[in-house]
């Protein structure tokens, strides 16, 4: 009985220690573009065995749906399926307008990585992305900027018939022919379709990310 009680005490201490290593942080994101609205961002803290996307690789179905139509359901389902490998995922409250800032709170555990994805809605398949940012040396406040990626799941024809965001409104319509097939840095809006380059183009970076210890 004494050995059993000792084991239970050790197990309880390990649980307490594990909980103590997790802290709440504020993630603050700012849209740096002039004319691109961003969809509600999906933000996750996770182990190194989880990837939201990989540059140079084919986008997952969940990421493609987010980058094409701002549909985060497949991506969040995949995070749920990852179980204990994901510390927490959260979604921003709504679209992020040019120049605006939003904040969410998220749990960060020892050894975690941070990933993020948010569609630039007046594009075929562009998204602001953060791929497994290492938080192992996180101490205090940190900030950095991130670029826009092309999911490679649609051709960038810049046709309103294939773009969900304003002024187009064509959700669910996709330009599958001539797609690139892999995630890469987005080249921006060329202006040779329905989208005026002066209004909707950008230069990377497109988002500022701040990680702030919660008070």
CATH architecture: Sandwich
Stated plainly, the CATH topology is called Immunoglobulin-like
The count of domains is 1
Arithmetic mean of pLDDT? 91
How is this structure best described in words?
- The chain is 19% helix and 28% strand.
- By secondary structure, it is of the alpha+beta class.
- It has a single domain, classed as Immunoglobulin-like (Sandwich), CATH 2.60.40.
- It has a six-stranded antiparallel sheet, with helices on one face.
- Helix 2 (61-69) packs antiparallel against helix 3 (73-81).
- It is globular.
- It starts with a helix and ends with a strand.
Short description:
The chain is of the alpha+beta class and 215 residues long. It is built from four helices and ten strands.
Features:
single chain; 215 residues; alpha+beta; Immunoglobulin-like; six-stranded antiparallel beta sheet; four-stranded antiparallel beta sheet; 4 helices; disordered N terminus
């Amino acid at each position: 009985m004494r050995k059993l009680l000792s084991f239970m005490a050790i197990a309880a201490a390990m649980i307490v220690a594990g909980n103590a290593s997790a802290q709440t942080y504020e993630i603050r994101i700012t849209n740096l573009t002039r004319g691109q609205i961003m969809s509600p961002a999906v933000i996750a803290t996770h182990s190194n065995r989880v990837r939201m996307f990989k540059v140079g690789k084919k986008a997952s179905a969940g990421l493609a749906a987010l980058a094409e139509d701002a549909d985060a359901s497949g991506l969040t389902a995949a995070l749920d399926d990852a179980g204990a490998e994901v510390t927490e995922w959260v979604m921003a409250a709504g679209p992020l307008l040019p120049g605006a800032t939003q904040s969410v709170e998220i749990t960060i555990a020892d050894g975690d990585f941070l990933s993020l994805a948010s569609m630039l809605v007046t594009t075929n398949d562009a998204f602001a992305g953060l791929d497994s940012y290492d938080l192992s040396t996180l101490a205090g406040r940190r900030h950095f900027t991130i670029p826009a990626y092309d999911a490679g799941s649609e051709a960038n024809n810049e046709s309103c018939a294939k773009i969900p965001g304003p002024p187009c409104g064509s959700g669910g319509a996709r330009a599958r022919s001539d797609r690139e097939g892999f995630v890469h840095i987005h080249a921006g809006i060329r202006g040779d379709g329905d989208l005026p380059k002066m209004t909707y183009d950008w230069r990377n970076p497109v988002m500022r990310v701040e990680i702030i210890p919660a008070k």
